[in-house]
Amino acid sequence: MMRLFINALAASAGGGLTYIRNVIPHLARRADVRVTVAVSPRFRSDLPDDARVDFLELGIPAARRFWYEQQMLPDVIRRTRADVLLSAGNFALRRSPVPQILLSRNSIYTSRDFSRDLWSRGEYRMWLDTRARAVLARKSVHWADITVAPSTAFAMELERWTGRKVTVIHHGFDREAFTQDSTQLPSDVRLKLDAAQGSFKILFVSHYNYYRNFETLIRSLPLLRTRFGGRLVRLLLTCELAAGKNPGSYRTDSAARLIEQLRVSDMVLELGAISYPKLHQLFAVADVYVTPAYTETFAHPLVEAMSSGVPIAASDIAVHREICGEVALYFDRFSPDTLADSVVVLASRADTKKAMVAAGLSRATRFSWKKHVEQILELSENLVGRRVWPPNVSR
Predict the structure, then answer these.
(1) Closest by CA position to 162, among listed 186, 190, 143
(2) Helix (H) or strand (E) holding 313
(3) How many domains is the chain partitioned into structurally?
(4) In this structure, how many other beta carbons lie within 10 angstroms of the beta carbon of residue 43?
(5) Per-residue pLDDT of the chain (395 residues; tens, 9 = 90+)
(6) Distance of CA 330 to CAs 31, 292, 334, 352, Å?
(7) Is 340 found in the same domain as 257?
(8) Which residue segment(s) compose the domain that 273 sits in?
């Protein structure tokens, strides 16, 4: 039996938690694998229970996490008698006691748009911090035995950045698991959705951060108000644009101020964070899914939208085109005008919407968490007891 150790200490929000939440059930079904997952106690309740998976709840402050991983975690891994380490937080161990697979899924370290965005916002400390983390992220690709990216577009970016080969394994989707929770949304969320009945509802699933480009979406709202004539348009956000309401240190004041300046507060419904098991209820009421992100590595909500029969308007970046293909309408990532054009097309052309929904339902079936886990385990089995190449720890 192979023993797999997953370092998920960095899984705290968004795609990180989505990944761990979805792979654990598939790993637990394997009789030939024993899994140990290192996770923060704060987020343990967000992960499924399974007697065949051992959880190590390690309360390490975020500021000390990298030091702990490099200095203390190797001994923890040895005590579990692990055969392979799966590092799921973008950073690898410099001297892993066992062969190591690095899951790299953070494109802000390679994104010029993100760097320019931070500088334009005067986020100089975050800009410096991101550059420092980028050095460690690049070194991590050299420290790991194998680096895995969730899309070909991001893998190519990593290869250009590091000079190392990167393996592509798409993230998955499980429609049955995604929709199995039938409990109601919180009452305050239901009240907001009830108030939006009859309106054209645009959904965007994300906590607030800069690279998801909320401001371009907000700037499109006055244009949509005009182009929809008398019909009310509502933007459903799974976050609140207020200080302290989002993970990380991203400041929401610019987005909140923009809503006031453009006088579109009546068009924006800030639903707050919605737990993953209940997200399908939002897709069920949405007329269009929109993402203006200017950098991505996979974008789970795109597959969730396709599987839910929701047409998509997405910013024109390589990752979005890889995931959606011809199933989405694409707009310039910094153009509110072309974003609005895409939404209007989906709202007004029934034949276009119908064709895209049908194609999306089919395309969503290409993504499978079961297949993803099988490919990760195949890589792991090939590493057991040996190294593909000795990690160059001097780099």
Answers:
(1) 143
(2) strand 312-315
(3) 2
(4) 18
(5) 899 999 998 876 666 778 888 998 899 888 899 999 998 887 777 676 777 889 888 888 888 889 999 999 999 999 999 999 999 988 999 999 999 999 999 999 999 999 999 999 999 999 999 999 999 999 999 999 999 999 999 999 999 999 999 999 999 999 999 999 999 999 999 999 999 999 999 999 999 999 999 999 999 999 999 999 989 999 999 999 998 888 878 999 999 999 999 999 999 999 999 989 999 999 999 999 999 999 999 999 999 999 999 999 999 999 999 999 999 999 999 999 999 999 999 999 999 999 999 999 999 999 999 999 999 999 999 999 665 444 544 44
(6) 43, 10, 12, 14
(7) yes
(8) 176-364
Q: Please give the structure tokens belonging to residue 364.
A: 């969503």
Q: What is the DSSP string of 177-189?
A: HHH---SPPPHHH
392 located within any domain: no
Q: Of 87, 80, 91, whose CA–CA distance to 53 is shortest?
A: 80
Establish if 8 belongs to a structural domain: yes
pTM of the model as a whole: 0.93
Sheet with strand 233-237: strands edge to edge: 268-270, 233-237, 200-204, 288-291, 312-315, 328-331
Q: What are phi and psi of 97, to 5 degrees?
A: -75, -10
Domain shared by 182 and 139, yes or no: no
Report the distance separating Cα 144 and Cα 69, nearest Å. 14
- Whether residues 168 and 41 fall in one domain: yes
230 vs 197, 339, 381, CA distance in Å?
15, 20, 60
Q: Do 227 and 343 reside in the same domain of the chain?
A: yes
Contact 371, 168 (CB under 8 A): no
- 214 lies in the same domain as 354: yes
| Distance separating alpha carbons of residues 69 and 81, to the nearest angstrom | 17
For residues 156 and 189, membership in a common domain is answered with no
CATH at residue 379:
3.40.50.2000
